[in-house]
Protein: Terminase
Organism: Gordonia defluvii
Amino acid sequence: MKAGPKAKTDDSPLPWQPRSTGAARFRSFCDRFVRVPKGSNAKAKLRLRDWQLELISSIEDADPMPRTAGWMLPRGSGKSTLVAAYGLYRFFADGEGSVVVVVAVDERQAGIVFNIARRMIELDEDLSARVQVFKEKLYWPATDSYFHCLPASPASLEGLDYTLAILDEAGVASREAYEVLTLAQGKRPKSTLVAIGTPGPDPNDQVLVDLRTAAADHPEDKSLVWREFSASGFEDHPVDCEHCWSLANPALDDFLHRDALVALLPPKTREATFRRARLCQFVTELDGAFLPAGVWADLGTGEPVPDGADVVLAFDGSFSDDTTALLVGTVSTVPHFDKVKVWEKPSGDDTYRVPVAEVEDEIRNACRRWNVVEIVADPFRWTRTLQALEAESLPICEFPHSPARLTAATGDLYSAALNGRLSHSGDPTLAAHVGAAVIVEDARGIRLSKASRSRKAKKVDLAACLVMAHSRATWRATHRKKKKVRSFK
Ligand SMILES: Nc1ncnc2c1ncn2[C@@H]1O[C@H](COP(=O)(O)OP(=O)(O)OP(=O)(O)O)[C@@H](O)[C@H]1O
Ligand SMILES: [Mg+2]
């Protein structure tokens, strides 16, 4: 079919009377009219995967229907194809005067989704008979509906009035373009902005990151939905970890080919690039990480600390003002660790205070579950709790965070981890905290720290507990007290 207006278009309605609603109606549209335009399954019916339908459902089945959807997926997961099909659906199914716009960093990028949509039309007789195809727009005269392809320059977007806007490549799209698109909303009872993409190289300037943060900070905000497929939280796993690959790539071994990913592994691409583009992990650089990649994951056994075991408990809340962590480790020269609990400030809640009574109760519970020989904590901020628990005859032991002591304890933990002389449960929060910890070194020695002082920086409190618990658990194992420690009932 040649581009350009056709002399005559078929004015009859689409031969399609779905009884379904929501995402199921979209599926019915794809089953009836949409073919895969290229690549794997080319020219076959676009068979939507369950995870693709779930994404659409996050808009179509939500009540109220959100105004903005942010979807983060790795490269090659069919993002452009899915939003092209969804754009067509809204173009054909939203009724009179619907306007779909596709926007991306530049015209070429916006053209990707537009060209997929155009090709989908060409591959179906019923659709192509009804639509006029132009270089940068589709027009359906019978309903006066448009499907535009626009560059992301704010000037070209001013004054828009759309039913659906698709911002492709939202990991690199400009903030201005996104803002103009959001501001254009509100003129119609139903309008949706879908921002879809893979994390871009600059984590500080990304529409995608802004949406992700906004969704996390305001879970009550029904006007925004966020969906991601990522191995976020597993940054300490090796770059070729199969678990991370399948976690982040729903299309893997389906229309995303594993050998292509293998071929891209570092050193062919930089590790940070691979992690960002293929695992949707927000990594800038890995220098300064406490443990080399993969070391922590290899120490995981999947086992908890057995009830009744001789253990050390460690708790810490001094690294970030709003997080408190409680960790358990067996008294052994090769100790085994697990998270007991982490209390974290819900994002956006500025009135949050650490629930001290709850922390104390959790410590008491732990003392019933295991034979706790020592409860170790940095006395900073916890003096009263330590005194109260000590008054109940709990075995409190202060671990003052003096530079000399921390340097020794951090160094011991490091060499134990590297030499396989400790193990852990595989708890993901524990892994995330250890993965986020970096070494800082100054004249006073080395210690663990967060990567940045920002309140949004990833938490490392369990890693701080680990330094203390490891130090005390191994010390206890080699200096057993003669007197049996009284257990707390
Ligand atoms: N069910 C399906 N959904 C989406 N794409 C499919 C499906 N089956 C096969 N494909 C093919 O898989 C490929 C997906 O490529 P697409 O450009 O949509 O992915 P993308 O995530 O936008 O990639 P990029 O990260 O490069 O922008 C296309 O060639 C498409 O035709
Ligand atoms: Mg794409």
